Amino acid sequence: MKAVSLEKELSSTAYPGRGIILGRTADGAKAVIAYFIMGRSENSRNRVFVETEDGIKTEAFDPAKLTDPSLIIYSPVRVLGNKTIVTNGDQTDTIYELMNQQLTFEQSLRTREFEPDKPNYTPRISGIVKCSNGKMNYAMSILKSADGDPDCCERYTFSYDAPLAGKGRFIHTYMGDGDPLPSFEGEPTLVEIENDSIDAFADKVWNALDDDNKVSLFVRYIDIATGEYESKIINKNK
Hints:
The protein is mainly beta. The protein has one domain: Inosine monophosphate cyclohydrolase-like (Glutamine Phosphoribosylpyrophosphate, subunit 1, domain 1). It is built from 5 helices and 13 strands. The longest helix has 11 residues, at 198-208. Helices cover 15% and strands 40% of the residues. The strands form 3 sheets. It has a 6-stranded antiparallel β-sheet, with helices on one face. Strands 5-6-7-8-9 form a 5-stranded antiparallel β-sheet. Strands 3-4 form a two-stranded antiparallel sheet. It has helices spanning 6-11, 42-45, 91-99, 105-109, 198-208, and strands at 19-24, 30-38, 47-51, 56-60, 77-80, 83-87, 124-132, 135-146, 149-161, 167-172, 189-192, 214-223, 229-235. The radius of gyration is 16 Å and the shape is globular.
């Protein structure tokens, strides 16, 4: 698979839904994590990312306009030791709790499936990054219906040991807009990751997303040698 421009990939569709980008800077020094949310309904767009002690949570920007908190209010990012978990739903907590009981990333997700939002059956996408002793690895998962049939949950896990510098993987919930929304297909897209500062990288991602549908973006850079990290949040609602 040939690496493609992340900006071009992000801008190629008006509605990729929610997306996770994991990778490594071109100098090999930092692990890169990005998570964004988009929305078509007023309820989905009425959100912001709020920083927590180790990650982020979603909150209603205007609580008076919140009509249904299920599936949109959750903690997308949590840290468990030297592992950073990022997902598009409350499976973040499932992974955190079960991995803390010595289950694996994949085993933890065996207890979950796609979202019950008929007729879309939105995939649950998840990622985990581990930085330890100057090394990193990461994995991604997607739980999706069988071409819209909820009787079958298809489970895919993609693992990347010693990921290459300057490369990342991008997975998102939808292939584009539609009714119902078509679920992501194939393995996570190989994308180019450069040596941008966290601010420059966040701006690239944010500016490439559709102006009407984008809601919030979170980016974290982790120093692979020390484990220290810096984060950035961009919210459309201010």
